[in-house]
């Protein structure tokens, strides 16, 4: 492609609203253009890179036995109502209606649609297992879109769905997908980890995320410093064993704590450690109030609370709701003498506390010398807190460390969540009906583009891995008005296109502008035709390493082959 014939609107200044490196560089290098908050156009360079990622995805998905289709983005509300997600998915679901006042959603995912299609076409066990996938634009009404393509309201995603007669069959395909995802992200050149995860609004159990390691990642990965264990912090089990201290239990007392609202305030006021204070929070589990207790130096993990209660939705109660229930503000909540219908669940660490401090359900008052079991009853103890750095690794090997990650892929074992809700299933060899056992497998294609840009750049611009670079070679004649340079460049353009995708900078621009744009765009190899064109000598530069070589035209093909072989390792 001749650069004068394509559209690459590079920018010199860093856009003021671009917070992270990948967002800045994709805008500056002319890959994307913002249309509205969280909505971007993919310009020619980005489209080519996305096509390369999609081709890798297609190849690996087909190796895993999945067939590609394309589903509608506009989905009737009836399907979501049938699955039960129309009201539970949340505000991220973009809802709309047509001129006949029929309600629809712009698809953030396609479990309902694909289940409906397979339900109508596959009734026999002989047609299973079946795995189908698509690559399509998805829509989610993010409250705060940020970081460019990393969290947008419109994005490109690969989603796959598998249908099975048994859990053993699902396990087999799930493992194939794990292998396929590993291959995909390796081929994209990414530094990533596979981690245990929560299924979120999709539902199901046994899920894993594929996380690209990055300091700007929105997720925290908890990993062992002595094994392969890794999990999203939301899902990392706390396996610490707590023992009660061998001390005498003191008499319960209520004291005034004027102006003391936070754990830090209360602990400093009473000269105790935060670990000696019981943190009490009111949460709504499927709209029913529950009191959740953790130690003052720990943080409540709402995902674990949801799982412990087997709830569909869990959220922290607003202060107004808390006052209605307990007649006090947030800073004074406690488990003693609460309404009898309010369930109390507590983290295991709370059960080992003696002579602790907690709120008295009276503003600016707290209890001291609190003993769980003596002064209040706990309905259930469970692992309810976020794991912390330094905690024992759940697999018993080493201790936990943290890293940041960008989620680019997620695989789920859905089970029968959707098939039972939508009465979708098959007849076995005896003619007996069963619901499909399902799996779901997603990759953020546009997110992967961002993750690559975030991992591969320097102070001059982007550095694309060879497998997904929009072009292989950037061919630059320094002066197109020089007939020998122009002629040599045109000949090389014709020759190189037989083996490589070539971007030919035929613009009448200064050499400095061309070189700056070339570094910014970040193609793997630059071939420069300059003053030695008359001698048949060109300059070759490797973007990743900065290595520069002067090469005779007759040796250029062999030189490029060696360079690309080395870059592909």
Layout of helices and strands:
Elements: H1 21-28, E1 32-36, E2 39-42, H2 44-63, E3 67-68, E4 74-76, H3 77-83, E5 94-97, E6 103-106, H4 111-121, E7 130-139, E8 154-164, H5 167-187, E9 192-197, E10 205-213, E11 219-224, E12 230-232, E13 253-256, H6 263-270, E14 278-285, E15 288-295, H7 302-309, E16 314-316, H8 319-326, E17 343-347, E18 356-359, E19 365-370, E20 380-382, E21 400-415, H9 417-421, E22 425-427, E23 433-435, E24 437-444, H10 445-455, E25 457-458, E26 461-462, E27 473-477, H11 483-496, E28 502-504, H12 511-521, E29 525-529, E30 537-542, E31 548-552, H13 553-567
Parallel strand pairs: 3-7, 15-17, 17-20, 27-28, 27-29
Antiparallel strand pairs: 1-2, 4-6, 5-6, 7-8, 8-24, 9-10, 10-21, 11-12, 11-21, 13-19, 14-15, 14-16, 18-19, 21-24, 22-23, 25-26, 29-30, 30-31
Helix pairs in contact: 1-10, 2-5, 2-10
């Amino acid at each position: 492609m001749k650069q004068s014939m394509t559209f690459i609107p590079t920018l010199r200044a860093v856009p003021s609203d671009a917070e992270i490196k990948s967002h800045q560089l994709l805008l500056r290098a002319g890959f994307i253009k913002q249309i509205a908050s969280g909505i971007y156009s993919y310009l020619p360079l980005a489209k080519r890179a996305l096509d390369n990622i999609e081709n890798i995805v297609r190849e690996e998905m087909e190796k895993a036995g999945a067939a590609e289709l394309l589903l509608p983005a506009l989905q009737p509300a009836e399907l979501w109502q049938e699955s039960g997600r129309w009201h539970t998915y949340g505000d991220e679901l973009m809802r709309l209606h047509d001129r006949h006042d029929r309600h629809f959603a712009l698809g953030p995912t396609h479990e309902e649609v694909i289940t409906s299609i397979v339900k109508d076409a596959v009734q026999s066990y002989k047609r299973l297992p079946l795995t189908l996938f698509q690559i399509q634009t998805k829509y989610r009404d993010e409250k705060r879109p940020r970081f460019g393509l990393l969290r947008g309201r419109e994005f490109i995603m690969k989603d796959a769905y598998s249908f099975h007669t048994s859990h053993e069959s699902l396990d087999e395909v799930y493992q194939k997908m794990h292998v396929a995802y590993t291959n995909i992200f390796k081929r994209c050149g990414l530094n990533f980890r596979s981690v245990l995860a929560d299924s979120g609004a999709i539902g199901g159990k046994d899920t894993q995320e594929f996380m690209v390691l990055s300091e700007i990642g929105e997720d925290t990965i908890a990993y062992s410093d002595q094994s392969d264990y890794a999990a999203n912090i939301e899902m990392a089990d706390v396996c610490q064993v707590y023992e009660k201290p061998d001390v005498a239990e003191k008499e319960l007392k209520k004291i005034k704590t004027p102006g003391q609202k936070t754990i830090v305030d209360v602990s400093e006021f009473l000269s105790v450690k935060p670990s000696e204070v019981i943190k009490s929070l009111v949460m709504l589990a499927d709209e029913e109030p529950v009191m959740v207790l953790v130690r003052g130096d720990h943080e409540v993990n709402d995902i674990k609370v949801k799982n412990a209660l087997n709830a569909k939705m869990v959220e922290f109660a607003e202060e107004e709701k808390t006052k209605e229930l307990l007649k006090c503000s947030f800073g004074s909540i406690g488990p003693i003498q609460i309404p009898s219908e309010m369930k109390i669940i507590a983290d295991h660490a709370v059960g080992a506390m003696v002579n602790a401090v907690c709120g008295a359900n009276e503003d600016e008052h707290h209890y001291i010398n609190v003993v769980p079991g003596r002064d209040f009853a706990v309905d259930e103890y469970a692992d309810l807190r976020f794991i912390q750095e330094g905690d024992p690794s759940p697999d018993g090997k080493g201790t936990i460390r943290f890293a940041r990650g960008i989620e680019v892929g997620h695989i789920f074992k859905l089970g029968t969540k959707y098939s039972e809700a939508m009465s979708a299933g098959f007849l076995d060899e005896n003619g007996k009906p069963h619901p499909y056992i399902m799996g779901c497998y997603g990759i953020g294609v546009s997110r992967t583009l961002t993750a690559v840009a975030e991992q591969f750049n320097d102070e001059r611009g982007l550095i694309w891995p060879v497998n997904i670079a929009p072009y292989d070679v950037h061919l630059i004649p320094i002066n197109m008005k020089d007939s020998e340079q122009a002629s040599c460049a045109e000949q090389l353009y014709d020759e190189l296109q037989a083996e490589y995708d070539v971007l030919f900078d035929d613009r009448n621009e200064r050499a400095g502008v061309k070189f700056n744009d070339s570094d910014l765009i970040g193609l793997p190899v630059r071939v420069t035709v300059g003053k030695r064109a008359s001698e048949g000598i060109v300059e070759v530069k490797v973007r990743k390493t900065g290595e520069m070589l002067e090469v005779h035209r007759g040796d250029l093909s062999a030189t490029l082959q060696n360079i690309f072989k080395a870059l592909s390792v």
